[in-house]
Amino acid sequence: MPLIWPALIVTILLVVLPVLYTIWLSLSDRKIDGSNSGFVGLANFQTMFAEPEFWNSIRVTLFLFVLCLVVETVGGLALGYLLSIDVPGRAIFQGLMLIPAITASVAVALVWLLIYDPTLGAANQLLEAIGIDPVVWLGSREMAPWSIAIVDIWQWTPFMALIIAAGIRSLPSEPFEAAVIDGAGSIKKALFVGLPLLYPVLTVAMLLRTVDLVRFFDTVYIMTQGGPVNATNTLNVYGYTAAFIDQDPSYAAALQLSLFFLVIIVAGAFTWLRGKQSNAE
Amino acid sequence: MPSRSAVKQKRRKIALVYVGYVVAALIFFVPVLFMLWSAFRRNIDITGSIFDFTTPLTLSNFVNLFERFDFVYYIRNSFIIAGGSTLLGLILGVPAAYVVVRRKLAGLGFFTLLARMAPGVMFVVPLFVLSIAVGAPSNDALNFLLLIAAHLIITLPLCIWLLVPFFEEIPRSLEEAAMIDGCSVWQRFVQVVLPLVAPGLSVAITLSFIFSWNYFLFALALANADTMPLPVIAFNFIGQGAGDYGGLMAASTLISLPALILAIVAQRWLIRGLTGGAVK
Amino acid sequence: MKKTTRKSLAILTGLGMVLSIAACGSPSDNAGGGDAEGGGTITVVLSNHPWQRALEPLIPEFEKESGIEVKVQTFAEQQARDKILLNLQSKSNAMDVYMTLPSREGPQFSSSGYYEELDDYLESAPEDYKATDFSPGAMDGMQADGATIALPINVEGPVLYYRKDVFDELGLKVPGTMEELIEVSKTIKEQGDGMIPITLRGASAAIPFTFGPFFHGEGLSWTTDGKANFDDPAAATAIDEYATLARDCGPPGVINYSFTESSNLFAQGKVAMELESSNELNSVIGESSTVVDQVGVAPIPAGSVEAAPTALSWGIGMSPFSESKDAAWEFMQWATSPEIQLALTEGEIAPPRDSVAADPEYTDTFDTDAKKEWGEAVADIQANGFVEVGPVGAEAPAMRKVIGDAIGKAILGEITAEQAAAEIQEGLTPLLDTK
User: Fold this and answer.
1) Contact call for B138 and C82, based on CB within 8 A
2) What subunits make at least 3 CB pairs under 8 angstroms with C?
3) Candidates 2.60.120.1440, 3.40.630.30, 1.10.3720.10, 1.20.58.1560; correct CATH number of B68-279?
4) How many Cα atoms sit within 13 Å of B253 on the Cβ side?
5) Which residue of A7, B41, B243, C35 could cross-link B92, Cys pair, CB 3.0 to 4.6 Å?
6) Neighbours of chain A (3+ CB pairs under 8 A)
7) Which residues have CB under 8 Å from C232's CB, separation 6+?
8) Rounded to two decimals, what is the model's pTM?
């Protein structure tokens, strides 16, 4: 038992105390010069709820979350199936597919900034080569969230696929054989036998992505800082700029707590649905 | 004996898989190649056609980073922070994971989950205030300590999360045998349990190191000019190296190097670690 | 399993080695102010800027002369502000001198006590420092609550860079008014064979600096008696002109553009005109430029009422928490001395001192047309520039964002210029009220 104390104490110091401090900050008024004029009740939250930018950032966050999660899951299933088939060279290919997920997001963002450059970037050169008009990837409010989503989908779909592939490979073969005896085709086999069996693995993978997607930060902050005109201002980026650029740590604390609640709600809802589903079976 | 048509069908399936590989590699690996390639091209070529593969390659982007921007120094900083937080994460996390498994503790699991779900931004302001209170902005050693502690928020839960499945695989009977032999708890842990989870330790070390190495936010807000790790200096470089795309790509390549190397050398461990918790 | 154990051991020992190497000390170990008592070392935090790039190579000279070791920390502008605040809020002695933009953060910093007042230092400065020689405009910008809070290090303001070859080919005249500017841009768009007519700032926080001349040119000032002036119909005209240029004649993605992007595009020869700070001369005629011989520089075109360039001065301030204030002052005095400001003109840093601006040693360096034209434009900025880059007040940064966001939306065509003006008026009012 004494073995666990160090970790427990460190966790309390590093995780619990900051959360408590953030709660205090959100209920008080810390100034730019470091002074704090004390308890102000829910004033920061009132300001926040009245601020259109707060609702915009929630919308942006949820848009990116839903879009990325859906595409990454569907793409991950397809790529995961591919990765689960035994062919020579599979291990090497798996290694390649690991790279986007473990590459630093700063590097990823810098590369995609260059790819997205409206006048000399690779993306528009490619489009031009196949006869499509160039796109202002990060330069319009309609396009920017999609462009950011593409980067996340690029970075994390292979990761989903790796988890799913591992899941597929650990599936028992009997149900499939039974299905073949019943005369099921391969698509039917995959949909009605494979998918339900894969369900637990799939939902864990989706839960992992959910938690990260709601907290979308690095690539957005580096590529657009939330722009153009707040089109990609996720709640996390908004919480950071409020604290460190607008220098309003108390208001920022209210934003950050809301983000935390949002993560808990979304992850909680997900877990609950998952529990309900598996009970139903 | 498989019939000829079955062999043919199998060959066709393999061929199809390879077609899939090529398509996937085009989508998911070409941007990485593009980064590597651009890092070795001259700026004037980078801003030119991406279909021109005849442009000369050069090391000057890297030379520039090391000579003008002293990148060795920032690589060292990254090693200190990622290495330190990995080491501490292990020292604290290995025993904790063991106890979590043996005592079936859910409580610490909850804290770990909390740390995993809380947005990093939420830790930055408190750490910023702490940094001010202890005078870390002006003291490099303290600043490093603070950054290592901050990165522990990443590495400690990760270590515990990764190691729990490995500890679960150890049969209780083995330890009980050691207990009968008169080993103390500590001896039992070090001599019997630890060697059995060595593969898990490798996974935990590699992944903690990579994730800590890659982490951007804490150092962005807390590091001073002497303690900045690579991701922050690369971000800073956007403004300073105005239009120096080659330099930016060279910097990105340097940041990605550990991940690229490990993806080749240790992909089996990494994939097991990354997917293990989900597939169990 | 044995193999993996060995592998992990190897990694562990590897890590151990790295850590012990790390403990052996760094090239800048004498960094902190803590071990710099006695004024032997000072730390200077700078923002990435042409001034900083021109000054850094000269610092060893100062170190040799004074025996003071100067440690320079440079960050991109926003990060620099972050680090400076981190040092100031923690009352840290690790930063002695820092670069500041009083027109932006002056009131905020000043009321927090983040500037060491410099009047006494200035008074006791030696005669050859010529403390009274700074141009009044630049020095006025360095005041807060009746005290001098920083020393001016440059003068800058938006000018129009243009491509002489393109103008010649199309038979165009350099525009003198905003109306002509829009006309010229449209001509280039129609006849320029794919050449982008003009690039200017679209990134929200950066807009006010270049938008100012459009606004002031209509005879408006940001505020009158603490009330914003965006309800004046002329404000919508100014917004419309700016947004039209950016939307109809600007590069794709202009909404994310600030000086870096614009100057890159110009230096690559892809755009015919660039509306940017005079500071960017070095970027557009520097070594990486492909259009060096074709650059022309003109003062920013006039509005319908008057010509109204924006004038901006960066400054260097002293941290009140410095423990080496004398050494810090010595450095500041050196960096803003007539000799150094003259030397800095080689990096195209326009001097905030009248005597240097008139010094033949400086004016004689205008050996190309571009430099000559640039010199005139800068002189005009210095003489006639509006010093208020945005509305003044404790909430200056937020107010600039309000202006930039609304104009951004107008550039994107989401709202009309009138709607943008109304949005700004509404957004500025509560911010002007907070003191």
Assistant:
1) no
2) A, B
3) 1.10.3720.10
4) 19
5) A7
6) B, C
7) C218, C220
8) 0.83
